[in-house]
Write a structure and sequence with these properties.
- This protein is mainly beta and about 425 residues long.
- The chain is built from three helices and 24 strands.
- It starts with a helix and ends with a strand.
- The mean pLDDT is about 85.
Length: about 425
């Protein structure tokens, strides 16, 4: 096994941005980082603190290295810690916040548009958290990507190994560089350690000051189509009740049911993806938490259904839970709030030139028999701002011809490289 200490001491090349190391060897995802390719990859080590001191020197050293493997992007973290036994590691659940734990986090802006990115986070238990960028203030935490991570402990700290398949990321055909940032959090000292955007007026979601990693030319093309059929069977025994004469007649006969469905993903281009679902099954969606509502206002539950969570950031319009133009949880609910079948749904989202596009069409069945449509476009302006428009339409019987339209804008200005002035608004 390679020495962890010697591995992390390999110097970073002088000048320019770091590069990902290309390798044809598969990586064993175990958190040990003992493959020979790790010793030859560029080191990213020049981290600074955002909290508690802006631009300060971290109390513990952090080193990150990247490998471009046939399986996907591999990210290795060497997190030095003089008190490794005292690290916080309470969370195990997928998508737990991890804010009370020691964790590391990766941001990937594959399109380098400074407006879209994915976030991947893990603690020393190997718990996974991921999300999708919306703006500098918030993200879509309901997005779940396909990736994995493993961790290990050594005498002077702990290591983390992430593997993100190329199909999970979004990048153009002629990709050569990707925007990235790396963050480590140490709860014992309340240190937020960042590679870039470590100023108080910036932060992890400040994509305009993201770092750049080179060496991504000739990446594998995304699969043009992905099919996920499913078959769901159900059987129930007859129910019997005790009669007055002591007999057990059937009160409910036994039943059997069989349903099938299909989820299909098509890469229209490397930056534009279409999804089609036929008779989707949301049995694996996370169950909502029980909440007692003692107010006269309705509750907003987060979207958990996979078909609606991916790419949901493009449909953000207005103030969330206050004046938002589209709330996806209403799709698939009948007039009385009971779920109805969705026989068909189609979605397309991504980027074409300087425009971000989103389209959603869902047909509901049972007693509702309605069609819901959403069309969204955002055009890039300034460094990372946009002007956009969105329209929604529904032909439900309870609200026939319901039509909504709106325009919005976000215009960020940077002053003295520290302070942010962001003008935003919408009308619908």
């Amino acid at each position: 096994m390679l020495s962890v200490g010697a591995l992390a001491q390999t110097p970073v090349p002088a000048g320019g941005w770091p590069s990902v190391r290309r390798t044809t060897a598969a990586i064993r995802l175990d958190g040990r980082l003992d493959e020979a390719d790790w010793t030859l990859a560029d080191s990213i080590w020049d981290f600074k603190t955002k909290e508690p001191t802006e631009g300060g020197t971290p109390s513990e050293r952090t080193v990150v290295r990247l490998l471009a493997t046939p399986q996907g992007l591999a990210v290795g973290w060497w997190n030095y810690d003089r008190d490794v036994a005292g690290r916080r590691r309470s969370q195990l659940r997928r998508d737990a916040e991890l804010r009370s734990d020691d964790y590391v986090s990766l941001m990937v802006d594959g399109l380098r548009d400074m407006r879209s990115a994915f976030y991947f986070r893990t603690n020393s238990n190997g718990a996974l958290w991921d999300g999708e960028h919306i703006n500098q203030e918030r993200g879509n935490e309901e997005w779940d990507g396909i990736w994995d991570a493993r961790t290990d402990v050594f005498d002077g700290g702990w290591t983390a190994e992430m593997l993100i398949p190329w199909g999970t990321l979004r990048y153009p055909t002629d990709v050569s560089t990707m925007g990235m940032n790396f963050r480590r959090f140490l709860p014992r000292t309340n240190e937020e350690v960042l590679w870039r955007a470590w100023k108080r007026g910036q932060g992890y979601r400040f994509l305009e000051d993201e770092g750049v990693v080179d060496g991504f030319a000739d990446l594998p093309r995304r699969p043009r189509a992905e099919f996920r059929p499913f078959v769901l069977g159900e059987a129930a025994l007859p129910e019997r009740t005790l009669a007055a004469d002591g007999s057990l007649p059937e009160s409910t006969p036994g039943r059997t049911a069989l349903s099938t469905g299909l989820d299909m993903k098509v890469a229209v281009t490397n930056t534009l993806t279409a999804d089609v679902t036929i008779f989707p099954d949301f049995a694996q969606a996370e169950v909502d938490r029980q909440v007692v509502n003692l107010t006269r206002f309705p509750l907003f539950f987060p979207e958990q259904r996979p078909f609606f969570t991916e790419g949901a950031a493009i449909f953000a319009f207005g103030r969330e839970q206050q004046a938002q133009l589209f709330y996806s949880r209403r799709v698939g609910l009948g007039a009385g709030g009971t779920p109805v079948a969705i026989p068909f749904g189609a979605r397309m989202q991504g980027r074409v030139g300087r425009n971000q596009l989103g389209f959603l069409a869902v047909r509901t069945g049972d007693d509702e028999r309605a069609t819901d449509l959403v069309v969204r476009v955002r055009h890039d302006v300034l460094g990372r701002g946009y002007v956009g428009a969105m329209t929604t339409y529904s032909d439900r019987e309870t609200r026939p011809g319901a039509l909504g339209m709106g325009v919005d804008f976000e215009l960020p200005f940077i002053l003295r490289e520290r302070d942010n002035l962001i003008l935003l608004g919408n009308a619908a």
